[in-house]
Automatic annotation (TrEMBL):
Coiled coil: none
Pfam families, alphabetized: MAGE
Entries under InterPro entries matching the protein: MAGE, MAGE_WH1, MAGE_WH2, MHD_dom
A single BP term in Gene Ontology: negative regulation of transcription by RNA polymerase II
Record GO cellular component, one term: nucleus
Protein name as annotated: MAGE domain-containing protein MAGEA13P
Record's signal peptide: none
MAGE domain span: 1-184
Organism, as annotated: Carlito syrichta
Listed PROSITE patterns: MAGE
SMART domains (alphabetical): MAGE
Amino acid sequence: MSKEPVTEEEMLKSVIKEYKEHFPVIFLKACECMEVVFGIDVRKVDLVSRCYVLDKTLDLTYDGRLSDDQGMPKTGLLILILGIIFMEGNCAPEEKIWEVLNKIGVYDTRTDFIYGEPRKFITRDLVQEKYLEYRQVPNTYPPCYEFLWGPRAHAETSKMKVLKFFSKVAGYDATSFSSLYKEALRDEEEKAQAHVATTDG
């Protein structure tokens, strides 16, 4: 992710031009879309010159691109899948994942402009990167599969961060989802205790 700052003046010159008076609304909507679709957070770094940088949402280090310059970030799809898994009780049937993805226009059998081959990205790339676990449900014929958070997802983000992200997108406070919020709090406490144990030991 490029940390090179961009100023409001540069955005007005090169992107918005004749709609300068609508800049605040356009900028807000663009930031929301970048966060949800690409998993990119637009952060203000200088109040005086109004400079912004692009940052990865939820501290995830992998963005699904082939290199720094090729392709589009796919972190938004990963965040969505992590959220579905959490909301489904930490283990989501593959059918549920595709049901939700179909609602946003991402299909198992169709190449996507942003995500490429979604099935390959989800069941191979994200599994190889250890963000997801993809396993067969025992005693199912024909075989059924399910997704869980992988070790890298647990290490880089938390249930609370994912819940806060979803709450923000939905326009609610995270505490509105009381059972998920309580579970996310327990997860935060366990991570804090584990961190203390490793630093003390």
